[in-house]
């Protein structure tokens, strides 16, 4: 049990089972409307899990999902959680021009604010897609008045990563209050490991995540930032055929164990909303621009 009880950031990237980056070459965007929506039921399950553990969190939600699941958006807000943006339809930012990105986040914010009835001030890029190719994305977020972003994975990974970026809170835009809160990394053998969720949490034994969060809280004295997806608590989701074996392995491993693992994690550390974490981290954040 951690004695320091630093309040870590808990987040859910709200997208449906067919909107995962690893399947983008298997399921086309045009097919989405014909597929079974499961995200609403999965969000309901997660809200109950969070109530049981008495924790609040941030739900980074796609505009596309919010349009089709308005009651779930209200429920997120009414139960004390933060509703934040994950963009409109999971298009990764390095495929956008700056103007296209600006339009995407503007559209998603309007839909989320309408569905949830609250202001949206936080953003997470699809697949942590702010990296060395598109540092201008932070300028666009600052220009639209976002308080914080949690969109950078400061690691090398086959799907994402900005290796040079700081591991903890930084100010990416001079003259702006925008703070970037990178997803958690741990140092192992001199290398940075992506340790904030995804396959690291679901596929590896729970002890690895405990070790990583303790390292960050105790050695670094900083909050960890953890994320997962509604489809990760849904063992009954349809299986996507035709995707790469490696993607399938990563996607479907340990789905049935996820809820129990999450309960352990929520009970063992202190957790809270990302907007509150960003405000606490703001005074300690580095000025760092690419
Ligand atoms: Zn996502």
Q: How does the helix and strand content classify structurally?
A: alpha/beta
CATH topology name: TIM Barrel
Compute the gyration radius: what is it?
18 Å
**In the CATH hierarchy, what is the architecture at level 2?**
Alpha-Beta Barrel
Question: Compounds present?
Answer: zinc ion
Helix content: 25-40%
Mean pLDDT: 94
Q: How is the biggest beta sheet arranged?
A: 5 strands, parallel
Q: How many DSSP helices?
A: 10
CATH class: Alpha Beta
Query: Can you write the helix and strand succession as a string?
Result: EHEHHEHEHEEEEEHHEHHEHE
- Return the domain count: 1
Weakly predicted, low-confidence segments: none
Instruction: Kindly report the name of the CATH homologous superfamily.
Output: Glycoside hydrolase/deacetylase
The count of DSSP E runs of length 2 or more, i.e. the number of strands, is 12
Distance between the termini: 38 Å
Q: What general form does the structure show?
A: globular
Explain what this protein looks like in three dimensions.
36% of the residues lie in helices and 14% in strands. It contains 10 helices and 12 strands. It has helices at 39-53, 63-68, 70-78, 98-116, 136-143, 199-203, 206-219, 245-252, 258-268, 274-282; strands spanning 7-14, 58-61, 82-85, 122-123, 148-149, 170-171, 179-180, 185-188, 191-194, 225-228, 270-272, 286-287. The strands form 4 sheets. Strands 1, 2, 3, 10 and 11 form a 5-stranded parallel beta sheet that branches. A 3-stranded parallel beta sheet has the order 4-5-7, with helices on both faces. Helix 1 (39-53) runs parallel beside helix 3 (70-78) and helix 4 packs across helix 5 (136-143). The relative contact order is 0.20. Zinc ion binds next to loops.
């Amino acid at each position: 049990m951690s004695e320091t009880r630093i309040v870590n950031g808990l987040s859910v990237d709200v997208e449906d089972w067919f909107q995962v980056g690893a399947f983008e070459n298997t399921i086309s965007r045009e097919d989405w409307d014909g597929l079974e929506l499961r995200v609403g039921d999965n969000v309901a399950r997660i809200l109950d899990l969070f109530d049981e553990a008495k924790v609040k969190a941030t739900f980074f939600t796609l505009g596309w999902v919010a349009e089709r699941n308005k009651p779930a958006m209200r429920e997120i807000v009414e139960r004390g959680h933060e509703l934040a943006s994950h963009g409109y339809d999971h298009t990764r930012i390095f495929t956008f021009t700056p103007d296209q990105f600006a339009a995407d986040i503007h559209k998603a914010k309007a839909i989320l604010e309408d569905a949830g009835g609250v202001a949206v001030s936080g953003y997470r890029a699809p697949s942590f897609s702010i990296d060395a190719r598109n540092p201008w994305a932070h300028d666009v977020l600052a220009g639209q008045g976002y308080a914080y972003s949690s969109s950078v994975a400061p690691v090398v990974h086959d799907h994402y990563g900005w290796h040079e970026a700081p591991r903890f809170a930084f100010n990416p835009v001079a003259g702006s209050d925008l703070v970037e809160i990178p997803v958690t990394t741990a140092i192992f053998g001199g290398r940075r490991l992506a340790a904030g969720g995804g396959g690291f949490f679901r596929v590896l034994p729970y002890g690895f995540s405990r070790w990583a969060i303790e390292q960050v809280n105790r050695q670094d004295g900083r909050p960890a930032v953890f994320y997962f997806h509604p489809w990760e608590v849904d063992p009954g989701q349809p299986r996507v055929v035709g995707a790469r074996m490696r993607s399938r392995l990563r996607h479907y491993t340990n789905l049935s164990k996820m809820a129990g693992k999450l309960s352990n994690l929520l009970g063992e550390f202190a957790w809270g909303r990302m907007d509150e974490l960003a405000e606490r981290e703001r005074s300690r954040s580095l000025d760092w621009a690419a």
